[in-house]
Amino acid sequence: MAKPNWTPSPTDSTIDRENTVKLRPALGSLRVWEADTGRLDEHIQSLVAAGLKSKARLHKVILTGVMGVAVRYGALAENPVRDTARLRRRKTQPHTIERDRLDGLRAQLREWLAGKELPGTPAYTHGPKRDPLVMSPI
Q1: pTM to 2 decimal places
Q2: ∠ CA(24), CA(26), CA(31), 5° rounding?
């Protein structure tokens, strides 16, 4: 018997992990009318507390869609996910670029505008002319 001709995708390895948090085992026993804002928020915040902020965001998106369908078909009066706590993103502080890196960037942009070959990029030989306004904000 021949082996199947496929390579496992990255998700194949995460499906069967023991510590993978799935939406259905966590909230699958709830009926639509039992899923109130408190229970859904508790689930989302437990993911955040476990350090799974991106998964919490994804679960919130999925739950918003599921509850939106329930509202659309009249099973719920309003979407309970809408009133859950916001998942705040950390604001990053802007960093200044060092002078030598800025000069290197400008030199590389000048070469790019001239159509010269750059590391990892072939020379520009055809197509519309490159716009020199790229250099204006820098």
Answers
A1: 0.56
A2: 70
Q: Where are the alpha helices (DSSP H) in 1-138?
A: 10-15, 23-27, 37-49, 53-72, 99-114
CB 61, CB 23: distance < 8 Å: no
CA distance 49 to 56: 10
Which pLDDT tens digit goes with each residue over 56-101? 999 999 999 999 999 999 999 999 999 898 888 888 888 898 999 9
What are the residues whose beta carbons fall under 8 Å from the beta carbon of 86, sequence distance 6 or more? none
**How far apart, in whole angstroms, are the C-alpha atoms of residue 68 and residue 71?**
5
In contact, 43 and 27? CB cutoff 8 Å: yes
Residue count of the chain, please give it. 138
